[in-house]
TrEMBL record:
GO cellular component, one term: cytosol
Record-linked Pfam families: S6PP
Domain Sucrose phosphatase-like: 38-276
Organism: Albimonas donghaensis
SUPFAM superfamilies: HAD-like (SSF56784)
Highest taxon in the source lineage: Bacteria
Annotated region described as Disordered, given as residue ranges: 1-24
Protein name: Hydroxymethylpyrimidine pyrophosphatase
Amino acid sequence: MTSPMTETGKIPDALAEARRHPPAGSRAEEYVDFASRRFVLATDLDGTFLGGSEADRRRLYEWIEANRGEVGLIFVTGRDPQFLEKLCAETFVPWPEYVIGDVGTTIARVEFDESGAGRVRPMGPLEDWISEAWGDAGPKVRAALDGHPGLTLQPTAFRHRVSYDYDPGAFDASAHDIVAEMGLDSLVSDNRFFDVLPRGVSKGPSLLRLLAHLGVPEHKTLAAGDTLNDFSMLALDLPGVAVGGAESGLLEKLDDRASLHKAQAIGAGGILEAVASLGLHPTPPAPDPAG
């Protein structure tokens, strides 16, 4: 995917300065600091945090950087750690403190070296259940779905999942049965992707595991997304936002969620809209009316 960020040159001084100064102290102190934020944004990337107008993305990102002491940031995404490191290093997207990556099969923290370079480091103990549920399923999945109608294997070698590009016109739905018989889960999202995941593992359960580890109250967490692979996160009993332009199938499945804000604004603008609407912070900038 080509990043929607249009500027990969000079990073605004305030953002660059923030990247050079990660939280100080021990990890225990860091967890206490993170849990004490006014709220934590747990956000999908494509179509959500990276979606909307450039003006709204800048408003959101700069507001987060200016309020790091009050706003925590977790990326909850289908993207892998290498993509995230490149994204944050080369564009004006702010670094998160923690990451739920690979559709929930990676749980990680962001660390910075002495030069300020950020790295997404898996948190081993939090991933043990994922590794156990997956085992060595990758080769078996690839063999079982080799040549399956409507599925094209993605080239990235993920640790605890196998992912395909999905062609709905050519797809043979028996793939779901094949995956289920292997004791694994299958997930179609955005009508473009087919993921094979460890049984019971997805964005929602992994986010809850991380929040519990960090001591973050669920009611102080805003989950943001736009496609069906965000369903397990947005269906949790915590504040949520389906940003403008969200997948219709997602909205249908979440129709009875009282704590879900269905935003009008697209992407980053929808997040800003929800922060204000749900009263999570007193000073979020308003989305661009033209966005």
